[in-house]
Specification:
This protein is mainly alpha-helical and about 210 residues long. It has one domain. The protein is built from 8 helices and 2 strands; from the N terminus they run αααααββααα. The protein is globular and about 55 Å long.
Amino acid sequence: MEQENTGARRGGLETVCRLFIMAVGVSFMGWCFEKLGRYLAFGSSADRGFLTLPLCPIYGISVVAIYLFMGTPKHISGVWGKKIRMTRPWRRVVGDSAWRKYLFYFIFVAVLSTAAELITGLCMKPFGVMLWDYSGKPFNFMGVICLEYSLMWGALITAFMGLLWKPLWGLVKRIVTRYAFILSVTLAVPIIADFTVGIVHLALTGERFYG
């Protein structure tokens, strides 16, 4: 029994490490997406996000959370997905219809990503930091969320989870367990340090560390 518990704990820790690696990878992809998008839209490649590292954690955290809560549009699973699939409305309205699964998934991720933007934006506002500003967009709320971007995030995340999550997750799972632990720690230390320095500097000066 003790060996089984130890094995379960190690298995859980291994999964956490791999999900963390996945979150960091998606955060880097999000940072690249933000940089490229800003350059194409405004001709400027100003730094994006809160960290000085090339990461936008809101991307990685949101995508991993969506996977844990709802799985992928092809395979609705996760903490909430399994329960939702057992409900009568799901069986009557969605069932085995592929396009309805994608539609449901799109609505879910649009709402969840909007909530992530809202929470992040409101948490930064007391410090006078605007990581993004939707004030000029129609149907916006306090400049931190708006309908246009909510729909865009819903579409982009649904496409990402439907097309890219499985192959990327497959690559992460191929990392030898020992190296997955080492890589997780190696990534976590500078990220935690970067975030801590940024928060302390922001609290003391009211400005972001890098500008």
